[in-house]
Each structure stands twice: as structure tokens, then as C-alpha cells.
Amino acid sequence: STAVPTTFQLCGNTIQLTDTSKVLGVTLDRKLNFKQHCENMLNNLVYRWVCISRYANRNWGLNQRVLVCLVRTVIFSSLFYSSLVWQTNANLVQLNKLWYKVAKSTIGAVFNVQHTIAEVILGVPPLSVTGRVLAVEHYLKALSTTDDIHRSFLFEEVISGNPAILSQMKDAIRFIKWKQKLYPRSILPADMDLITNSLSIEELFRLSKRTCYYSRRLIDGFTEFLWQESLQNKLQLERGLVTYSKSLSFSSTPATWHQSGNRSVNHESIL
After folding, report:
1. What rounded mean pLDDT belongs to the chain?
2. Do 205 and 111 meet the contact criterion of CB atoms below 8 Å apart?
3. How big is the chain by its Cα radius of gyration, in Å?
4. Distance between the two ends of the chain, CA-based, in angstroms?
5. pLDDT tier at 139 (50, 70, 90 boundaries)?
6. Closest by CA position to 270, among listed 47, 141, 142, 107
7. Collapsing DSSP states into helix, strand and coil, what is residue 258?
């Protein structure tokens, strides 16, 4: 195999080979796993939150409503920039830990509180749900434009079987089916048959602009739908763990899982 040169000449300038390069605010690395981008963003977000938290305390300073507004404006605007490119479950681990600390401080909790409960109190969906909704908006915008170069690129990637794009576009299908169920008049009759008969990803490109249309009200409704689904899945997981723990014969297990069962009950009462 031919080794990659460390330098080359371009228009009289020497171009150096680097491990990372920033393009439009996104740090690209050799493996394209965007770990360096997430580390840089995490450091930036920590600094921003430290600056905000100076003006907030449990007994004085900014109230919860103002803090949520600042978090959405100052932190989320940077966190979700180009999230369609870099967001993966692995890259969200450290960011979720920071978001938990921010949410816990915003609600004024002294002791640890479940992450999902803190998000329900603040009325802010999980980072993963928000990222999925942003991806849906992106793809619907591309699908509703017939002469968009990005639309042609998406079609080629879908045909080639790109797993990342195929996974993200499944949420676009769910949005259209959700929209058809709640607002059937917003779907053209010609598209109704495609949606009813198990709409595939390839058939997304045949839908009309009106069917792919979305508004802020629709996006907010779909966000609540995905959020509720996520909460239900976590509740079912907790119930399964509690049921499994009760079936074990170890003496230490019931006491260990008793607290988890209480948390599940509190979760249901809040929801």
C-alpha cells in the first residue's frame, strides 16, 4: 500500500498532514468518530455553564424559568450544531453527564434525582430525542425540495445502504405516519396509499412537498410523542428489573432493589 505523504505542495504553499481539521465549526479526525469535536465542545459548554451558574443559587439569583431559557439559548445552540453529523450514542455519554449536572442545578436539587424526572420537571426532552427530531427536520426539508443537491445525495446513500442515514430516515417515516394519523387532511390523496401500505425509505422520495411539510407545532407534537415513548420504555425497563430482582433468592438483593422500586413509583406519580 502507498503511504500517505506528510506534506505536499499546492500553489507554492506547503500543506501539512494533521490528525484533525476544523471545517465550518466541526472538528474532523482521521477516523471520523468526532471524539475530538465532542471533547472540544464539552470544554466549551462547561465554561459556558460555569459562567451562567455564577448568577444562580438555591436561595438567590436567576430562577428556573430564566435558567431554562439560558440553557436553550447558550448551551443547546452550541450542543446541537451539526448534530446530524457527529451525534452517536457513544458521543453523547459525556454530554449527557454534563446535561444531568445542569438539569440538577437548574431544578435546585440537593440530593441526586433521576435524570428523566429532572427533564420532566424542566419540560426539556432528552438530548437523544432532540437530536432525532432535528434530523427529521433536516431530511423533511431535503425531501420537500425537488432540485436540492442534498436530496440527490441522500437518494444515492439510501440506495447504497448507508446504515447511519437509513436509521435516521426511519424517524422521518414515523413522523409522516404520525402526521397522517393525527392530521389526515394534510396528506395528499395520492400519497395516502403509499403511507398506508407500509411506506419504505425509498418511497419517501416520491412523496409530495405538502406531505413532507412540517411546522413548529407539528415538530413540538412529534417531540412529545418520541419523549413519551422514551419514558414508557424506561418505565418498562425499571419494572422488569424490579420483577427480576424479586425473583432472586439472594438475601441482599431485595434490599438493594427496594430503592429502585420506590423510584419507579415516584416516576409514575410525576408523569
Report:
1. 81
2. no
3. 23
4. 59
5. confident
6. 107
7. helix
Averaged pLDDT for residues 144-165: 80
Provide the grid cell at 94: 459525556
Q: Which amino acid appears at position 1 of this protein? A: S
Q: Give the angle 56-61-62 at the CA atoms, nearest 5°.
A: 75
Which amino acid is residue 39, in one-letter code? E
For 168-197, b where at least 16 C-beta lie within 10 A, e where not — what string?
A: bbebbbbbbebbbeeeeeebeeebeebbee
At position 234, the amino acid (one-letter code) is K
Helices and strands, number each (H, E), in the chain: 12, 4
Torsion of CA 268, 107, 222, 164, to 10 degrees: -100
Q: Which residues contact 95 (CB under 8 A, 6 or more apart)?
A: 38, 41, 42, 45, 79, 127
Most confident stretch, 86-100, 162-176, 197-211: 86-100
Phi first, then psi: give them for residue 40, nearest 5 degrees: -65, -40
Query: Is residue 34 classed as helix, strand or coil in its secondary structure?
Result: coil
Q: What is the pTM of this model?
A: 0.77
The per-residue pLDDT for range 79-135, each reduced to its tens digit, is 999 888 888 888 889 999 999 999 998 888 878 888 888 899 899 999 999 999 999
Is the per-residue pLDDT at 267 higher than 80? Answer: no
